[in-house]
Each structure stands twice: as structure tokens, then as C-alpha cells.
DNA sequence: CCTATTCTGTCAATCGATTGCCAGTTTGGC
DNA sequence: GCCAAACTGGCAATCGATTGACAGAATAGG
């Protein structure tokens, strides 16, 4: 129900917020002095500063970020563009980014490109006019597009590498190695990779890493396409998985893995007895189904923190300091098992 | 790994974005004419307008929202404050809000109060200086706080009712009635409500509605406290639920329900055979466990759309038009069953 | 052909803050 | 005591856009 109390609606009589001019008038100092009292501690006589600060407090003064942005060129705002806000993967990443941003007194603006490169580009462009820098997570854009955006304002890409653009990516090898090792120990020899979007850099990184490792271990491996990186996409791929005659499958992400898991159960293929499944990201809910999904987890929170910190230094024009690697980890739950003899 | 290509870093040589002054110089018209050409179609000679628009295009002109905000007082931005960004409930709501906002050419700023009223208030205040209006979802603030915020700038609350403040809430009755009806049919007579945060208005609405209905149907019902509205909180409440000797429980939200479901399974209490569980919100993942969780779903997407539209009209100072009710719906999956004789 | 409109484009003030430069006042060193 | 250095605070320009008022030009009506 849509409720609104017509009687008491406060609309109309909102009083304009206090400005430094109000404080100036109120204290008898000039606006520039007020500005200094508020932003350059120590620049003025201590008593003056005190008086002005008190007046500001009293008048409920809040700085107008827009007005400040004009002369300084700094908006105190960071933009975060993700491909799909509906994907639980981004939880921790967002949290991490938020955390660092608020530490630095910046606000985070959030946008969703709905898995569309065209939309992503236009959103990023619009956002760029109002932020100090941009975080692009799992971008579907071409390298050239990203480089162009990066030439306009500071930008950091996450889960992606682009020549000449600052980036933060996890090290996928440890997690993949652990998972593939667990599978090999349990007798698996024929493995499939259920792929994600072709435009996803992370998809090809995962596939490539898995492929190289499997080959070097003498395992056979195939890539199987999926229609979309969602539960529906995973379910849809079920038939192609069984047709491929493999005993284990890595899915590009947990959403796909979850869809496949469910489809398998529904069609009478036992997981993990007849088919082992490993996802990526260890999203919220991965541990919910029976069997609980085994997954390769990225340190998303740290990724978000790291990327944001990187963006902040980029904005300050400071040199980037390399950080330690951010390794992925294999969370082994119940969706893998030994091959039946 | 933290990657950055030192060689190609574009930093430093970013060229300043084009302004209306650049366009003015480039076309020989005055800045005010440029402004009019871009914002008041028809106000100028068609040829002039064309020439200016072309030049703008050519120079890659993007309006500076900060600069515009100063004289107009409109930032073209809406703020959305949720209590916990990590709660999947907000997905659809955010999507809905985003959808309407982008239709209206506004950007959505997103903030998270981490379930803390203090933080929520300070975040809201900070945000208010840079947005045209605020959306408060599931606010933990007191009525008075909300009214004060509302007196500064347009504000709409979602999932909450506050005297004198525009609000959008779903109608919880239909879903609760359907769920309780299903339970009654299956022989349940002793029901528990596993409560959410006391500061949550929606919590008391759900409890109250459930309570009244149960009483009027002659069912016995108890409220059981939980420590926090998360899976951990639900698990933690398990013992108190069994001690209460009920055959069915409604949980304040799906997170709690999921936690309880898991705890029950782990401690050997069969769901739904020995205990029926109903959640609220039907979040992502509710259908994942075995048994899949039955849940009462709010039309969150529409809620978000409605609230955003309402905020937009509030900003324009237009009168609010009442909309149709937004009924909840009972999604019956596998977590309820008949009482064992 | 003359006046009354309607068009077009420019001027200049304004939004709220920041900041380089300057001048008057203190303070300090010797 | 005298001069230099350090403090304090104000002036005025600036950031990029918007907009009311106005003037000259074009058009219309009779």
C-alpha cells in the first residue's frame, strides 16, 4: 500500500541550509576566513577558529560538496561499476570498497551495467563527470574502451588486466590447483569447464589456468559453452555436460554451478557420486544445497579494499606500491567425490 | 596480485574536459547561448542550435553536474540507504529503484548503515548534502530522527510508516494469511514467530499481523527473540524453538529461517516432518536447501520502483497519487508439512 | 510603410566554496 | 629600540553552469 500523510507533509517549508556566508555574517569575519577556519586548522588565530567552528556547529552548517567540487575539482566520490548487481559475488567486494572509501571520507557511487558492454560504457562515461575515480569490476568492455576511459580520469579495473591501466586481480592458481588436485586424487581423469561470458577476462583466465594445469598433469579437459552466467545458464548446460562424458566439472561461477547441481539432481544424476562439481567465488548460498557446493573462493573483500586504496593513490597522483598476492582458496564441501569404479 | 603497468600509465596527461566556454569560443557564440542551445530546445534559432550541438559533440562535451547543481540546487542524484547491503533482500529493490532513477536521468547513490542507527543517521545527513532526495529502506531510526531528516530534503521511507513522512510499504496480510492457512490446514495449532531486530518496524508489523490472525483463528502463538537477523542468528535460536514445543515457526526473514533450517537438520530435527518453517522475503537462495524454504514474498522490485517514483514527485513538489496495494504472496515450497499424528 | 510582436543572442549576476596575494599587526632577535 | 620574520585576516578572482533582463533584428498586421 502506498501511504502518505497529506496532513503533516513537511513539503515546502524547508529552510535553506547554512553556508559559510551565513557563518561569516554571524561571526563578523569574512567568508574566506570561515573557509580557512574550517579547512586549514592552525592557519588562523586559535580563538577565531574556535568562534567560527562554534558558530558553524550552532547553525548546523554542512559543507556543500558541489560548491567545493567546483574550484577544487575534487568531488570526494568514487564510482563502482559492476556487471550485475544481482550477483552475490559482489557483496564482499562492495563491503571492502565501502570500508576503505569511508575511511578516506569519500562516498561510493554504485552502478550496474547489466552485463551489457554498451550500457557499461555509457554509464562509466556519465559517472566520470561526477566522481574522482572509477572502479570497474569484471568489465565487459574492450581493452581500448577501458584505456580511453582511463585517460579521462583515474580508473582501476578489478578481475581484469588491461595494458597501461592499474588493476587488481586475485591469483587464481592456488585455488584451481588445490581443487584439481583433490579431483585427481579421487580418480578423475576427464574434466569439463563450463564457461562464462566470452567477453569476461576472468573467464578466460580461469579456463586458461585450468587448461594448462590439466594438460601438464595429463588429464583430459574440454570447454563447454554456457548461454549465460546464471543458474538458468547452468541448468541449460546440463545435457551438454552429460553428453561430454566427464566425471567432474568446473563451472565459471557458483551461479552456473548451482544451476547445474540442481538440474543434475532433478534429472537423476547423483552429485557427487556420478558427477563432481566445483564452482568459483563461494558466493552466499553455496553451502545451502545438498550436497553443499565446493568452490574456489577469491578474497573479494581484500580485492575491494586493495582496489579502492589503489584508486585513491591514483587520484592523489602518488606512485603505486605493489601489494602481496591475493591467492584464491579451494573450499571443499560436499559436491566432489571419488570416481565410482 | 596487484598489477600495474608502470610504463604505460596514463597518469598526468589527462586533458581537462570541455566546458561550455570552450564551445562558445569554438563557435563564436556566448556561453549563455551555448547553455540555452543545450538545455532549452527551440529557444534559439534552429541553425544556431544545430551548430552548437555539433560543436559540443565534436569536442566531446559532457555537462559538469557539480557546476550545474550550484545555481539550480538540483544534483540529479538520489540516495538509497539500506540497513545491510549484504542482505540479498535488497537486490530487487535496488534494481527497481535503479530502473526508475535511470529513466528519470538521475543517478542512485548507495549507502549501507550496517544495522546501526547512529551510523544510519550520520550517513543520511552526509548524503543529504549531495542528493535531491533520500530513500530510507528498513530504517532503524526513531520516528523523530526520520521526521527531522525529512524536514531537510525530500525523503521516502520503505518498509516503514512514520507520521508525516511519505512511505511505501507492502501489504503483508495476504502472504501471512495464505501461509498460516496452509499451516492450519495441515493441522498446526502451536506456532512460533522468530523475531527480528526490535528497532525494525517491519518486524513488529509482521509479528502483529501474524499474532492477530492466529488469535482470531484460535491458534496459539509465541514470539521468540533472536540475536541478529542473520543465518547465525537463526541457528542460535534453534534450542529455544524446540524448547517452545511448537510445530511450526515463522521467521522474521529468510536469513534467519535458513539458519534455523540448517541447525535443525544438523541437530537431527527433521524439516518439515517435525518442524515446519516459513520465512519472509523469498531471497536469492531460499530454494537452494533441501527442503527448499517456503517463504512470504514481497514485491520488492515494485516497492523500489514505487518508492523512487514517489520520491521523484516529492522532489518536484507534485502531489502524491496513491497507488494500488502491493500484496505479499506465499511461495510454498518444501519446508512445511502436515503435523505428524 | 509604420508600428507592434516575436525572435535571437548577449550581459551580468549568482550559486558556495577555495586560494593566491597582500597589508596590517605581532613577535622575536640582537 | 629597530628591523625582519611570522601571524592574521580580507580582497577578489575563479571553478562551470544557469537565467532574468534587455537590445537589436526579423516578421506580422493593417
UniProtKB/TrEMBL annotation, chains A, B:
<dbReference type="InterPro" id="IPR028082">
    <property type="entry name" value="Peripla_BP_I"/>
</dbReference>
<dbReference type="InterPro" id="IPR000843">
    <property type="entry name" value="HTH_LacI"/>
</dbReference>
<keyword id="KW-0804">Transcription</keyword>
<dbReference type="GO" id="GO:0003700">
    <property type="term" value="F:DNA-binding transcription factor activity"/>
</dbReference>
<dbReference type="InterPro" id="IPR046335">
    <property type="entry name" value="LacI/GalR-like_sensor"/>
</dbReference>
<keyword id="KW-0805">Transcription regulation</keyword>
<dbReference type="GO" id="GO:0000976">
    <property type="term" value="F:transcription cis-regulatory region binding"/>
</dbReference>
<dbReference type="InterPro" id="IPR010982">
    <property type="entry name" value="Lambda_DNA-bd_dom_sf"/>
</dbReference>
<dbReference type="Pfam" id="PF00356">
    <property type="entry name" value="LacI"/>
</dbReference>
<protein>
    <submittedName>
        <fullName>LacI family transcriptional regulator</fullName>
    </submittedName>
</protein>
<dbReference type="Pfam" id="PF13377">
    <property type="entry name" value="Peripla_BP_3"/>
</dbReference>
<keyword id="KW-0238">DNA-binding</keyword>
<feature type="domain" description="HTH lacI-type">
    <location>
        <begin position="18"/>
        <end position="72"/>
    </location>
</feature>
<keyword id="KW-0678">Repressor</keyword>
